[in-house]
């Protein structure tokens, strides 16, 4: 079965609400009208009975009643819808102004009766305090009942017409009100890899949908950014792999052009091995970043004395720093819970990056603060502020002249460092001013 559309549901809901309100109001009005007629009938019957009782004062038997009948009939003739019945002791009928009157009710309260297709309202009172005769006055209320029945039919007709009109108007209103949703659907349907720049007009949206439209626009922007990064990433991969592959092909073809000695073949294989090792390392790095993108990096939680790991890394890089005439320093201590292998890799990437860009006679300083805050700073040429946020992008280089085929400079180190920091629920940022370039890492740790 096909599910009802949102517009149809709203239209039916409007119709049901209108029908319920109309029915409730109609029934309330009908009940109030009926009660009003009852009160009017009771007032009329009580006033007429009071008159008849005064006319029958002192009547003790049927013979005395005969002398009062002309006055009673004259009074009854003034109101055709009234009928009077007088019963003596023992229930004997003394007088009835109309044939086929219903039996006297057992109660003296106001009662509604029906006889021969006529509806009556009756009220019974004693004729005199000194006699047991009773007066019962009947009021023909057939026209009242016809009015109430007509009103009930009008109520049902009003309920039906109101529900139908509200359903039609509700359908129109729902269709008009849901136009922004249809517009959002059209935009979503038109989104493709070639049309990610389409945006919803938030200013034209109603207040209830403006936030949703803003969210959808933000989602489209994220998709556009991700697609652009993916496209650039694919181009960068092809660019980075093209040179080593060309080197391998050229080197192998040259080697095979003529017979060579065993030593020459060995050298050729060693050269190919270096290119293959670099390609394997880059692929491993890319797999590492892919795991990070999908939240698959789960760092271990080991108590680490971070200053000890920094000292070990500085000792490892000391020979290279000495060759480049760069001074290595470590200041402060820090302890935290984390993955030793991942954090050492991140710090190693930062130190390697700093060594490549620190001029001779410069300094690299690693500062550790409780909290935990790690700062790897080096002296050198300042980096433009516009380039700082992009330093952590994959394959990004500040120098537009790409150094193709050099394994140490593939452009993935800082991206891997950021992934490791994020996996430890930390943040990393780059700063460059006053002749110093700083990479600041803030991690949750133990003071």
In short:
54% of the residues lie in helices and 17% in strands.
Structure description:
There is one protein chain. Helix 6 runs antiparallel to helix 7 and helix 8 packs parallel to helix 9. The chain is of the alpha+beta class and 447 residues long. The chain has helices at 6-55, 62-66, 69-77, 142-177, 179-190, 207-255, 262-293, 306-323, 340-357, 413-423; strands at 82-87, 93-96, 111-115, 118-128, 131-140, 302-305, 327-331, 335-338, 363-369, 373-379, 427-433, 436-442. The protein has a 5-stranded antiparallel β-sheet with strand order 2-1-5-4-3, covered by helices on one side.
Secondary structure blueprint with pairings:
Blueprint: H1 6-55, H2 62-66, H3 69-77, E1 82-87, E2 93-96, E3 111-115, E4 118-128, E5 131-140, H4 142-177, H5 179-190, H6 207-255, H7 262-293, E6 302-305, H8 306-323, E7 327-331, E8 335-338, H9 340-357, E9 363-369, E10 373-379, H10 413-423, E11 427-433, E12 436-442
The topology string of helices and strands comes to: HHHEEEEEHHHHEHEEHEEHEE
Number of beta strands: 12
Kindly name the structural category: alpha+beta
Q: Give a short account of the largest sheet.
A: 5 strands, antiparallel
What's the N-to-C terminus distance?
A: 64 Å
The helicity comes to 40-55%
- In terms of DSSP E residues, the strand content is 15-25%
Shape: rod-shaped
**Could you report the average pLDDT, rounded to the nearest whole number?**
82
Low-confidence stretches: 401-408
């Amino acid at each position: 079965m096909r599910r009802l559309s949102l517009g149809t549901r709203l239209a039916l809901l409007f119709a049901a609400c209108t029908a319920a309100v109309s029915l409730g109001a109609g029934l309330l009005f009908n009940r109030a009208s009926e009660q009003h007629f009852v009160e009017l009938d009771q007032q009329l019957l009580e006033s007429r009975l009071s008159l008849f009782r005064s006319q029958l004062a002192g009547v003790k038997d049927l013979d005395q009643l005969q002398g009062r009948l002309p006055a009673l009939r004259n009074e009854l003739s003034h109101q055709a819808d009234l009928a009077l019945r007088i019963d003596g002791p023992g229930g004997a009928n003394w007088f009835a102004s109309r044939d086929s009157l219903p039996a006297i009710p057992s109660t003296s309260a106001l009662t509604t009766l029906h006889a021969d297709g006529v509806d009556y309202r009756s009220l019974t009172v004693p004729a005199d305090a000194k006699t047991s005769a009773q007066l019962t006055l009947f009021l023909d209320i057939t026209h009242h009942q016809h009015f109430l029945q007509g009103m009930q039919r009008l109520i049902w007709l009003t309920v039906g017409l109101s529900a139908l009109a509200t359903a039609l108007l509700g359908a129109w209103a729902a269709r008009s009100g849901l136009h922004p949703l249809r517009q959002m659907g059209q935009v979503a349907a038109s989104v493709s890899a070639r049309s990610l720049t389409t945006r919803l007009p938030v200013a034209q949206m109603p207040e209830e949908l403006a936030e949703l439209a803003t969210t959808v626009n933000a989602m489209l922007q994220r998709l556009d950014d991700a697609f652009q990064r993916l496209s650039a990433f694919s181009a960068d991969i092809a660019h980075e792999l093209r040179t080593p592959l060309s080197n391998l092909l050229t080197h192998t073809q040259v080697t095979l052009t003529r017979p060579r000695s065993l030593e020459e073949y060995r050298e050729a294989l060693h050269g190919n091995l270096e290119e293959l090792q670099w390609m394997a390392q880059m692929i491993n790095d890319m797999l590492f970043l892919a795991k990070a993108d999908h939240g698959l990096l789960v760092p271990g939680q080991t108590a680490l004395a971070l200053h000890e790991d920094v000292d070990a890394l500085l000792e490892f890089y000391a020979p290279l720093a000495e060759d480049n005439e760069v001074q290595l320093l470590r200041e402060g201590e820090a302890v935290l819970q984390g993955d030793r292998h991942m954090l050492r890799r991140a710090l190693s990437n930062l130190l390697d990056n700093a060594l490549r860009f620190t001029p001779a006679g410069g300094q690299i300083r690693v500062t550790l603060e409780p909290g935990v805050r790690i700062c790897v700073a080096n002296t050198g040429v300042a980096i433009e502020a516009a380039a700082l946020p992009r330093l952590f992008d994959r394959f990004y280089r500040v120098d537009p002249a790409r150094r193709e085929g050099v394994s140490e400079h593939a452009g993935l180190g800082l991206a891997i460092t950021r992934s490791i920091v994020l996996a430890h629920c930390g943040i990393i940022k780059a700063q460059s001013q006053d002749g110093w370039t700083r990479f600041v890492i803030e991690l949750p740790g133990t003071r």
